[in-house]
## 1
Amino acid sequence: MRHLSAEMLAAGPEPVDPITSAGSAQLGIAVLVGIAVIVLLITRFKLHAFLALTIGSLALGAAASAPLDKVIESFSAGLGDTVSGVGVLIALGAILGKLLADSGGADQIVDTILARAGKRSMPWAMALIAGIIGLPLFFEVGIVLLIPVVLLVAKRGNYSLMRIGIPALAGLSVMHGLVPPHPGPLAAIDAIGANLGVTLAFGVLVGIPTLVIAGPLFGRIAGRWVDTEPPEGLIPQRPSEDLDKRPSFGATLTTVLLPVVLMLAKALSDIVIDDADNHVQRVLDVIGSPMIALLVAVIVGMFTLGRAAGFGKDRITKTVEKSLLPIAGILLIVGAGGGFKQTLIDIGVGEMILDFSKDWSIPTLLLAWLIAVAIRLATGSATVATISAAGLVAPLAADMGTAEAALLVLAVGAGSLFFSHVNDAGFWLVKEYFGMDVGQTVKTWSLMETIISVVSLIFLLLLSLVV
């Protein structure tokens, strides 16, 4: 998952003993078995993804000769951690999205965007919006904030959902992997001892062309490959005709950006103040946490969106209730994805990759990228990949200059984004929100993540030739 605090990430993962004594060959086979079972159950037997992920986790543990009770504990812990972290964010985001839609606020944003952006420039506008909003946001928060706008723009403007959605997803993902103050890059900066300002500058320099290629340009191709309609329950509907007014564009935009501003303020205070005893930073640490920032936005939205549209208390209550119904299935699927990921980690797959990588003799930037890629593919966790790879290559940065160390951090971040698939909870989040099947999600989301990872590595290697 991608929602852990910077402090937790900087501390690194707690060393734990694997729940099985299986060798590397058996673990490799177990990973293939677990993934194959999940894909087969979903694609061939049309089993619900929640059940497929649960069964796949058990198959993974059995193939690795892990005790069944330990496998169940790992899966349950991963599911619980994922739902407790991401579930609240998804729920709050769904409430804010429903208020945005029912009050007419989403219509106000969409109408303004459609009026000012032409058909050709719309994917670029979405990439820019996602990049700006995604700068301080965790990936899941950015998705739940942008989904109502993306779906409405696609529907109202008669755009391909992929042409609009891929640039938005790319904007969020590039920011997450390459640009501090996201927790992943911050953890790598701390482990490697890089300069934050230089890393930020290089991250933006590499991130912009990467976003252009993986967002609007790839979105045009993805739109030809996949033509899908999002689930009906997730499409924001026009507000009832009995509404005499709707929120202004300024009030709506302010409400949507409020959690962004709060989280950005916290991130900046961590950089500028960096004093745990400072009262200002302590306040910002609270109100800038994702859950509180979204909660504040929801409460504010009840007035700036609901009340502004003439909603009474009963109407606002009904809106909140209706917003939570469509996301129940999403929460279970995303949670099960987290459970499968945790099972992979607990049987020792991450450590297996780290042990293999010690004998690789290749250029440092490519080594850092490959280590992060291998851990990402095996565990599905960008966080685990970033922390583990940064810790492994940190000794190599001892004799590096400022620029080289910053590039090493970004190589780790780029590798951590490579090919999201069925063991990544984010894969299921995107799949459900965009109404795709597994194959379509691989051809769009997974390939987009791979393009971001590979293209950013290429730019980093080119940059290393001149700095």
## 2
Amino acid sequence: MINTVFDQDYLRDPHAAYARLRREAPVTLTATPQGVKVWLVTRYEDVKAAMTDPRISKDFTANPEVIKANELAGGDSSGAAAVTPDNMLFSDPPDHERLRRIVVKAFTAGRIRALRPRIEEISSGLLDLLEPEFDLLKDYAVALPAMVVGELLGVPEADWPKMIRLSSTTIEGSARDPREVVAAAEETLAYLGDLCAAKRADPAADDLISAMVRVHDEGGRMSQAELVDTAWLLLVAGHETTVHLIGNGMRALLTHPDQLALLRADPTLIPGAVEEFLRYDGPLSTSTLRFTTGPVTIGGTDIPAGELILVSLLSANRDSAQYEQPDRLDIGRAPSPHLAFGHGIHYCLGAPLARVEGEVAFSHLLRRFPAIELAVPADRLEWRPGMLMHGLTSLPVRVTADSR
């Protein structure tokens, strides 16, 4: 029996929906809004287990039929299939290690430390442009990571708005017409293919896509499809998650004045606060799809081979079996191993960069604006549709004149 999860009640309050599932059906058979059958895993320990079980795969390139095979009558799996390209996110060992090694040097601790002054500069420039009332999401949280990842990858500044639009459409796949998702994915991959060709014609460029082009051309360790699809992954993942880390974190602070006052009084708490924002209202509701290559038992539930698996990171991070008072925002909470960046071999490669961007963003916003508040009632804020991303559609705020 298929349990309805991703409905209007879920969109209004996913935390309540996940709390019910953790109590009543922690591993449940449900369907995406487009009619694709999936098993949803919601408890912390079960989520960790599913993300490390070798019988649960992400290699859809080698198994392209598995998504279509789980399409219900009247369903349309084309949108889901369009966003599973040939990159390290959708690969298993040994291909996963090979592809990850090619890009990991761009995200070392030393490289991220070296990027911090530029991130600070971009943040300050964006804040200089803001009016006393502005949309913190659109005018700041979207722009900051777009500019950072655009420079890191080598995407021309004139193309950033288009890339933001296309990545948003692709990421919101479960809430959109599959034809829109397919068209956006195809346009993105075509653009990145052309960009890789342009980088090949300018071998002196010092950016991540240029470096990957050289790996492809000189060593043969990366196919053309892997080159383009890895650029797609870094572009989308490097932008969307950081946007909603900042947006969700500021919403949490603005609706918890005691925590906002505590953070203003002691800015050294900001790194820990970023971790709490990731746990409390992280940017990802679920992971991307996985599938079983053989029979698997998760949380006492038997799942046959060839079934699709979704793990809920948002739910795992509110599991009372793992956290004391999980629904309470506590920026002084003792360090906890949250799952906002995943777990296992697919742990987010860009997590160090997202953390630094978050630290810079919250530090700058609180220092620049000693008085900042929501410009609309909190219950009027709307969450984005879809299963993957957990983020707001907008975050209108107001600052007093003397706080600028």
